[in-house]
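Field reference: sequence -> structure
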Amino acid sequence: MRLSAPIYRLKRQAKLLSREQGVTLHKALDRIAKGEGFKSWSHLAKRYAEDRPASHILSELTPGDLVLLGARPEHGKTLMALEIIMEAMKSGAEGAFFTLDYNDTDVAHRLQSIGSDPQKMGATFLLDTSDEIDADHIVEQLKGKPRGTVVAIDYLQVLDQRRSSPEINQQIETLRAFAKEAGHIIILISQIDRKYELGTQDLPTLADVRTPNPLNLSLFTKSCFLREGEVRLEAVA
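Structure field:
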């Protein structure tokens, strides 16, 4: 499926259209979708989800993986993480999404934008927007989840924002050990340093990950970086 611009830019266009013309965001999204040759935004979102590389990425992940998923703002890293979870759930796995950045309504809107209905997922999808989220909290909430559960955490750089939480490196060590022991796939969404945009490389690398506190990135088993629809997944040496 070819779009005139990455989907995050189309959403931005819809928000501008909504403000400029005084229409609801839903109507603005539909207008943008029709301009792309689709009858509605939900139709575009469904096709977009089908054509996204989430299925390929998931096929390259194995139980026990700890994955860093990084991109600059508005390049689709949260949607990609949710899409990977949805792909796993289509195959019978369970999913979980922990976020310190979004509320329940925000997540519901993002799921709907990729053609998923959060109300139909039931107990197979765990959504946690608690302010208590850190590695220990995540491990506790995932106890009893079946092997192969796909988990995304939004996002890496705020896991140690509470003074009572362990330092970030210790938390990543905890998550690495837990992923291996429980057989889960754990994806940590990550910010990319602003300096990256001053460079010439096409996609970020581990060297571009924003690390306000010391962090051993070799604790991750795989990295996945996004930029304007391009994706690179590779093992962490």
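Note: The two ends are 34 Å apart (CA to CA).
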